């Protein structure tokens, strides 16, 4: 979305850096989460065997490991244009404090969405587009970020249903507990918000029919299927859809974006416009 006419090598290189950065920083977030939750995880069936919870890894060792993860993430960040450093820095506060959300709000999944969606804001400066001076790019990035937040809340609500009984006993707050009786209605609403914002992103960024058909269309199909078929009372079924549903939806969006990039880079839309002009003549 940032620069459709960027060279394939620039897009591929930046994508590789983003993949590495996302993997490392997500790992750092998980380690920090396990540190914060080391006294809560032993009370939840799904998490009581986590390394810190079962005392296989000491908190001190986990802190050292977190430091190594953050340094690796910094190395990736410094491989991007320097402007990205200033855009990325605020996300560290979210990464460090997200685990506290489940202690004070019924919507920790929203805070998780704010944290894990931050990369949506980074793509533009990574390819040389300054969000602060480009209103169109800022609008597209904001819509994409918000769409990702809605998506994160959606699939993590399914995830939270795996622990709903243990969370209630341990006093852990979650959106699944708060809306247990109307979960599918909430999921449907979140899907509608995500799809609407994803489409708004495409409009703001000037995307063409390949994006709207491929990315938005596949997201609607995969999310609709997941919400319809997930069995919220079945822990294994929730885990299957959480694990695979993100790949189905994310894969469709990624393919739609790739197709749109190729269509614009190779001038397919230009050819269509020329053909339309000839037809009118």
Automatic annotation (TrEMBL):
It is an enzyme of class 2 (transferase). One of its GO terms (molecular function) is 4-hydroxybenzoate polyprenyltransferase activity. The chain crosses the membrane at residues 74-98, 110-129, 135-155, 185-204, 210-228. The keyword Coiled coil does not apply. The keyword Glycoprotein does not apply. Residues 1-29 form the signal peptide. It is a multi-pass membrane protein. Pfam families: UbiA (PF01040). InterPro entries: Prenyltransferase, UbiA_prenyltransferase, UbiA_prenylTrfase_CS, UbiA_sf. Its EC number is 2.5.1.39. GO terms for biological process: ubiquinone biosynthetic process. Its main location: membrane. Pathway: Secondary metabolite biosynthesis; terpenoid biosynthesis. Belongs to the UbiA prenyltransferase family. This is Para-hydroxybenzoate--polyprenyltransferase, mitochondrial (PHB:polyprenyltransferase). It comes from Didymosphaeria variabile.
